Amino acid sequence: MEDSKAPVSEHGxxxxxxxxxxxxxxxxxxxxxxxxxxxxxxxxxxxxxxxxVGSAIAMGTTNQTLPFFTQFLRFKAQYSDLPTLTxxxxxxxxxxxxxxxxxxxxxxxxxxxxxKYSRLVLVFxxxxxxxxxxxxxxAAAAVVYLAHKGNARANWFAICQxxxxxxxxxxxxxxxxxxxxxxxxLLILLSAAALARS
Length: 198
Fold this sequence. Notes:
Helix content: over 70%
Largest sheet: 2 strands, antiparallel
Strand order of the largest sheet: 1-2
Strand content: 5-15%
Order of helices and strands: HEEHHH
Structural class: mainly alpha
Number of helices: 4
Distance between the termini: 47 Å
């Protein structure tokens, strides 16, 4: 009777050891996956900084001057003539500053993969910055469209026929801003995935 009980207890011990090892392996793989998401989050934040800085600089340094009959009378177009484009530059600068300030917190997430509350804070502010940059890029895109096409009913002329260099610069600056929108959306999804795994 005693002999029959001994193998059962040994078998039970082996099963529990295997279960413990399985749980440890799954938690280790979960930590590795969360750390991988944190590294990707950090890389995307650097890329988003470059996109928003590029947009702000491209728009903020845009101007073109055209001569009109004489050298003394000239037409000049610059971004500050349109409040929408000024708003675009300000918003991209704000989003850039936020992304730079969020990089240290993202580095902390690489080292401490179980952080939850700081991830929630990033999700909240990432969503706010996404809303801001979407509003600015959409408004600027509408102005750029009018600059290219005009509106005959409202007597708005397509200025890009004359100010071609100005229009090329303001159109190009939108690319970085729309890229930043996509990157911020990815950052929110990555933070949500990391929170679900922790």
